[in-house]
Design brief:
Helix content: under 10%
Structural class: mainly beta
Shape: rod-shaped
Strand content: 35-45%
Distance between the termini: 53 Å
Amino acid sequence: STPHQLVQAGEVVANPLYVMVLDQFGNPASQFRVTFRTPNTGPSCLFPGNKHTSDVTIDSLGRAQAEECRANGVLGDFEVTATAYGNITVYLDVTVVVGNASNVAIVLGDKQFAEVSHAFNPLTVNVTDSFGNLVRGSAVTFSVAATSASGIFDGNTTSITLPTNVDGTVSTSGYSLTANTIAGAWTLSVVVQGIKIGRAHV
């Protein structure tokens, strides 16, 4: 199979995990069985039934292909072993990488106050995948509420889009958010890659 594969946390390994098994003369060794095994701890993937093993029969071409394997949420490298005849083992390398953004958490700036026509403090959020792994380079859009009491960013704009940094966080620091002239509470929405998954109360 592919020498080294990358798979997002929670997703199925894209290219099939398989090995070719030949006898000493180079002929397909069909009808024998191969056991694929993944690590019990750390980065890994699970076969159907949440199993760490997949036992398959070698086909007439000498190919043994494991069932689909879904990555867990632990990032890093691991090896899938494929064992034939009980003592012949090869290793398939897989790396679990961070999944798609699915959650946002406010780190700083929620539930704050500012006088009318004065600036709020910066808002900082972090973005994670469904397993809590921090997501870098994810586009986060901050948008002010279309209500009477509201605010405006520098440049007289109602929204800004910024990427998360290497530790999955992003801050509106450098893009001053100023309250308008109407007093009252309002909500700043936080949208990550088109999905509205958070809001800050100001």
